[in-house]
Specification:
With 185 residues, this protein is mainly α. It is 54% helix and 5% strand. The chain is built from 8 helices and 2 strands, in the order ααααββαααα. Helix 1 crosses helix 6. 9% of the residues are buried. It is found in: Cytoplasm.
Length: 185
């Protein structure tokens, strides 16, 4: 006996998942950064550390972790590799030995000039104009903020577009003229 395939819930289709678009975008961005940073001899996480240090040389490890949303277990080996590469120096604070400051070396500072074109090259390859780039940044910041908030902002239009646990079949997936869950005619 064969079973009939059940219709797939439109909200569970791969292409309906925002997370999948974010995942694909992240992979594409990181692959592009890998190319752009190869000339500098740094990885993407190292580049992020350098960006913070170019703003605030001598930042503490905890400040770096906070700015980059990295745990110390991830950040410490990263900083150790950067120190071995001659890009940074880690120094314990004289006031409190638990506090470690990270300072750029001359080589780390010199990379700033060489990295100047990286953001422009990424933007050019991304094909978004300035307004689109700013809007995307705003939306991603809002998404991160909402996902990290104890009570995220709820937009009922999301339930209508993507379905909800109470009504998993979004309006966009319904056939025009077909009965809805509340209409049994």
């Amino acid at each position: 006996m064969t079973t009939q395939p059940t219709p797939t819930d439109p909200g569970l289709l791969l292409d309906a998942q925002l997370c999948f678009r974010l995942y694909r975008s992240e992979r594409a961005v990181l692959a592009t950064y890998r190319e752009l940073l190869a000339d500098l001899g740094v990885t993407y996480p190292q580049y992020l550390v350098l960006l913070v240090l170019w703003e605030t040389d001598g930042a503490t490890v905890s400040h770096l972790g906070s700015r980059l949303a990295l745990e110390s277990g991830t950040l410490s080996p990263l900083l150790r590799r950067m120190e071995t590469a001659g890009l940074v120096l880690r120094e314990r604070s004289g006031d409190d030995e638990r506090v470690v400051h990270v300072r750029l070396t001359d080589a780390g500072r010199a990379l700033q000039t060489r990295a100047h074109g990286v953001p422009h090259d990424l933007a050019r390859r991304g094909g978004l104009d300035t307004a689109e780039t700013l809007e995307l940044a705003r939306l991603l910041d809002r998404l991160c903020s909402n996902l990290g908030a104890p009570e995220p902002t709820v937009d009922t239009a999301i339930d209508e577009a993507f379905g909800s646990p109470q009504n998993p079949h979004p309006a966009s997936a319904r056939t025009p003229g077909a009965p809805t869950d509340g209409d049994r005619s």
